[in-house]
Amino acid sequence: MFSDEAGVRHMDIFSHYTTRFEARKEEEYSIQEYLEICKKDATAYASASERMLRAIGEPELIDTHHDPRLSRLFSNKIIKIYPAFRDFYGMEDTIEQIVSFFKHAAQGLEERKQILYLLGPPGGGKSSLAEKLKALMEDVPIYCLKGSPVHESPLGLFSPEEDGKILEEDFGIPLRYLNTIPSPWATKRLNEFNGDITKFRVVKVRPSVLQGNRIKRPAFQALEPDSVHRIRP
Questions:
Q1: Of 143, 157, 164, 150, residue with least CA distance to 191
Q2: What would the pLDDT profile of 198-214 be if each residue is shown by its tens digit?
Q3: Given CA atoms 192, 193, 194, 200 in this order, what sign does their dihedral have?
Q4: CA distances from 207 to 5, 66, 130, 169, 215 (A)
Q5: How far apart are CA 146 and CA 171, in angstroms?
Q6: How far is CA 77 from CA 54, 82, 88, 145, 212, in A?
Q7: How far is the C-alpha of 201 from the C-alpha of 186, rounded, in Å?
Q8: Which keywords belong to this entry (predicted)?
Q9: Model pTM?
Q10: Which residues of 161-187 are buried (b: 16+ CB within 10 A; e: fewer)?
Q11: Backbone dihedral region of 123: left (phi > 0), alpha (psi from -120 to 50 degrees) or beta?
């Protein structure tokens, strides 16, 4: 028998579990509903780098000049502490490099085409950082075409030349997000639908390592030096 207090605690954990499960369930929308969501929420069409920056959060600026211990460690510098990496001590410079990489990738610079590569000796924190980055990717949901084997963005159905202006004026979607082409799967379905894109459905899903949704275990061997962005923890 549980006491009333224990019963409340058990109900709390069950309610918490159910709420978390419901929050991670797929939600389905029409193309029109998806575009309406884009008007209110820019993360509905954000790139992976932009979603990562959102998950990392804005930094807290700490002036080490006012703390005798920190001033000796950081030479009176102003350091940034990001909410997502608050438990990573002594890795401020490395974390700032990682954030800078994602910022540049989000801006469409050269980093957008590169792979983040953590380089350093054993025990340097590479695995911990990689696991944290994978966990952060699960924080922000993505929208993709239902049934697409590559989880492609619904915006890939639209032409930047012919549809870009309308999408930007009516739904606030910048032209730079119309930079993908439909997959063979989407092209085949589009032909089956006789060009009626309203027959496509959009699903909102959360990336998941456990379920293999948009996050995979990395396996990469660099062939071109310029394709790798190296960071030393």
A1: 157
A2: 999 999 988 876 655 55
A3: negative
A4: 36, 41, 15, 30, 6
A5: 21
A6: 25, 16, 18, 47, 41
A7: 11
A8: Kinase, Serine/threonine-protein kinase, Transferase
A9: 0.74
A10: eeebeebbeebebeeebbeeebbeebe
A11: left
